[in-house]
Amino acid sequence: MITSYEQLRDLKRSYLSFGDGSVCLCLLSAADLRLTFDWRNRDDIRRWFINSQTITWEQHLAWWQAYQQRENDFVFIIKELQLLRRPVGQVSLYNIDLEKHEAEYGRLMIGDERARGQGIATRATRLLLNWAFHTLGIQRIYLQVLKDNLPAVKLYHACGFTIERNEVQLYLMSILHYPSSTQYQGESFPAQPNRIYKSTSC
Hints:
alpha+beta; 202 residues; 29% helix
């Protein structure tokens, strides 16, 4: 169980990765930046971000430099391991507050079109929830989503999030508990991800 920000910082430096056999989450590295930059600026992806403006490469590099200094911000590259066998998206857990035992979920995007509609975002979300609740000791995870992003709202409901506040254009959703095991398309995987290994093996 993580109990200090020093432990979080060490964890972030460890190039942590974990998966369920079909999907793997690997901490973002400098080698991933061009790919995530291209994904982030696609019209069909950025339209669902609260800040939907395009960003420059310089802005992306500045974000990366700041991100490396934040011990409570984890961005994971989503890798599909069975068919495509390559990075297909990203997801994040950030604003981790160890005193309040809460964190924010977000930055989800599936950038590889061949990976869409395969349940990969759901698997990645469930892996991240497992890790957050059962490794970091988080007790509440919250997110913001545009109301008209219906596929995302449906995904979050399926993963256990409920609407906490209804705003003009947004839902604030949260989840307070995640079970020690869960079912997905007839398969089960444990709360502790069944593999933790160096990103080169992911």
